[in-house]
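Before the break, one more example. Copy the sequence into your notebook; we will annotate it together after we see the structure.
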Amino acid sequence: MKLVFVYNADSGPVSGLFDIGHKLFSPETYQCGLCSLTHDTFTEKQIWKDFRENSDTEMEFLHRDEFKKKYGKEFDYPVVLQRNDTLEVLLAKEEIDAIPDVETLIKTIEEKAAG
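Here is what the structure looks like once it is written out:
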């Protein structure tokens, strides 16, 4: 099993700068709940990095443009997918947006992936 995390942002330096600006000046309207949970304004949150690096589960992280190019599929982003033979939604956008903090995100992923 592999988890595929798809951020509601495009790849590239211009998109990255736009995202930083949005997080700084209007964080309440930032459109990627997954980014908000896993990253501070400039860096990945340490607890998330530790989870990611120490997990036995294979994980892939993509921006929406990278995901569309690689998999040719479309979802409501952000989304966390579980990939076995097919891609299945593990956490939909609405679920991600309702998660209050990175600790709850990690716990939810571990529970859903195990169950």
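The CA atoms of residues 39 and 46 lie 9 Å apart. The mean pLDDT is 84. Try to locate both features in your own notes.
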